[in-house]
Amino acid sequence: MGKLALAAKITHVPSMYISEFPGPRQGFRQAAIDGHIEISKRCRELGVDTIVVFDTHWLVNAGYHINCGPHFKGLYTSNELPHFISNMPYEFPGNPELGKILAAECNRMGVETMAHDATTLAPEYGTLVPMRYMNQDQHFKVVSVSSLCTSHYLNDSARLGWAMRKAVEEHYDGTVAFLASGSLSHRFAQNGQAPEFATRIWSPFLETLDQRVIQMWQNGEWQDFCAMLPEYAAKGHGEGFMHDTAKLLGALGWSNYDGQVEVLTPYFAASGTGQINAIFPVTAQDGSAIPAPSASQPASVPSTSRL
What we know:
Layout: E1 3-10, H1 15-18, H2 30-45, E2 50-60, E3 64-67, E4 71-76, E5 88-93, H3 96-108, E6 113-116, H4 125-134, E7 141-149, H5 154-171, E8 175-181, H6 204-219, H7 222-235, H8 243-252, E9 262-270, E10 273-279
Parallel strand pairs: 1-8, 2-7, 2-8, 3-6
Antiparallel strand pairs: 1-10, 3-7, 4-5, 9-10
Helix pairs in contact: 3-5, 5-8, 6-7
């Protein structure tokens, strides 16, 4: 019925918002903003009606959750970086129908997921920053998915991604984009050193690790990348434990994925962290490589170290 038309790994650094305003940082993140604008352009060309964002700023401690309210509007101030994002206005339509369809298929595939359509819960800035540059005219409906998952297995996130693709293709009458909103390495500069690291990665090890990962993505080395993702998430300080990336790769077929990534915004540093905007071409997949549900696994297994 429906179609997953576009998939991407995207940045949401708050310095994008700062770069809009007069001052020493004006224009500082224009390349990242331009990457978002290009993704928006491609979504429009592909007929996308709804953008689903895997948001690594939405923390959850149990279950997977979908924010699919009918409409979102407000002023947002970041609780962690209120000096970067303060009173940022936002407004866009939601998609309760799609949110419920996504949750139903996830549950059918053994991943406990709840859709919240009658809620006062506002999106986090992993959703709000990208929508500022992709959706200012409210062209797209938006659904946000919790992806800072503190007590979850990465293989369940991969399975959730595949379930959401199946839900779109088999039960939704429309065209959808999936965005994994989170960084590569995510080791913030130590307190007091953020200005010094505004354009530097925290360590040579993390920069080398990120660059090798990008090379793997561009070469299509998905078997190796999926095998190393748990360790990369841990040793690379992955944002949200890289559950957004697991969901994105799950939607694309996991280790059987055969696409080669197109980098829109080249790798850049932000306060010590590694960032990118990159398109993951959607290819035909049968889901045969998707991990089994992990509900029966022992609780002692660390959430980011098993697939």
